[in-house]
Amino acid sequence: MNLVVLYGRLTRDPELRYSQNGMANTFATIAVDRGMSREKRQEAEANGQPTADFIGIKAFGKTAELLSNYFHKGNRIAVEGRISTGSYEKNGERVFTTDVVVNRVHFIESAKESGNMGANPGGAGFNAPPTNMAYQSADAGNNANAGGFGPKSDDEGYYPIDNNDIPF
């Protein structure tokens, strides 16, 4: 199963573009905290080592438009999607890419916090509980929330799996 869930902050505003056939698409980068203890974080920072990973995300259709219209640099965001790999030629050399193709976006902060460009007046940081609002693209396979916005139910998209059905 190719499933990714990321929680972090946007490092720049999403870039909305349209393909020749009119399909919206966007690209952005999320800084995802590595979840280190305070001591490990201080040690890593002192040694010039990263404490976050910067992960490229791609979105298409309504999800791309939503990202572009409502999310900005510094906003906290959670996304669900899948890993996508690819390659292209640059100066005669093959460059390999790994991105997350987003099929669901979660609003993590309130409009008031978003207006403050990610300011954190409550001091909650990455450990703050997420809000219960989500957007799911129409092609994500579950049309129970076809309107896109609104509270998601606790069991939306989840179902019990028998251990005999797992291939490993």
UniProtKB/TrEMBL annotation:
Keywords: DNA-binding. It comes from the Bacteria. GO terms for molecular function: single-stranded DNA binding. InterPro entries: NA-bd_OB-fold, Primosome_PriB/ssb, ssDNA-bd. GO terms for biological process: DNA replication. One of its GO terms (cellular component) is nucleoid. SUPFAM superfamilies: Nucleic acid-binding proteins. Residues 128-168 are annotated as: Disordered. Homotetramer. This is Single-stranded DNA-binding protein.
